[in-house]
Amino acid sequence: AEALARTITDPGDQGRVLIGLVPAIARAGDPDRAEALARTITDPGEQAWALTGLATAAAEAEDPDRAYRLAADAVALTQIIWEPAERAPALTGLVTAIAQAGDPDRAYRLAADAEALARTITDPGTQAPALTRLAAAIAEAGDPDHAETLARTITDPGEQAPALTGLVIAIAEAGDPDHA
């Protein structure tokens, strides 16, 4: 799969293909190779997503130091992404990874940054999904009350209902079915 991905000449397209491959290699037991591959991705946004996937895989493998280091590198790369509609979801992915690694305070700080960015998205059809994903990540990080408050700020009922539904699922999966 890696060799085939390397034949793709567009950096963004190649990066999107490698994003799925990188955490799979890590989960298969070779996190060093996966990280080296992620760092070859030339598109900063795509590399940030790959590092986010690796940070999540590291957290799942109970390697918090690697998870924090990869997440910090991914956060630095998100600074290059100027479009809030792309940057907010990238930070949201890191909220989950950092929370899984065991640092909810850091996760909440990233969530606050992601929320501030999401609030600057002027298209409601783009902002609502960004807030929906963020609310789920905040719930998974352990703050279901804030997640619910965030989801309820989505003004379109057609967008708010799926956000709240997703929130119920995230809260239940996080082990709090009574609150869900």
Written description of the protein model:
The protein is mostly helical and 180 residues long. The protein is 77% helix and 0% strand. The chain contains 10 helices and no strands. The longest helix has 18 residues, at 84-101.
Blueprint of the fold:
Elements: H1 2-5, H2 11-27, H3 31-38, H4 44-60, H5 64-78, H6 84-101, H7 104-119, H8 124-141, H9 144-152, H10 157-173
Helix pairs in contact: 2-3, 2-4, 3-4, 4-5, 4-6, 5-6, 6-7, 6-8, 7-8, 8-9, 8-10, 9-10
Compact summary:
By secondary structure, the protein is mainly alpha-helical. 77% of the residues lie in helices and 0% in strands. Helix 7 (104-119) runs antiparallel to helix 8 and helix 9 (144-152) packs antiparallel against helix 10.
Strand segment tally? 0
Number of helical elements: 10
Q: What profile does the largest beta sheet have?
A: none
Mean pLDDT: 91
SSE topology string: HHHHHHHHHH
How much helical structure, as a percent, in the residues?
over 70%
Unreliable stretches, pLDDT < 50, 5 or more residues? none
By secondary-structure content and strand pairing, the structural class works out as mainly alpha
Q: What is the gyration radius calculated from CA atoms? A: 16 Å
Head-to-tail CA distance between termini: 40 Å
- Determine the strand fraction and express it as a percent band: under 5%
Net shape: globular
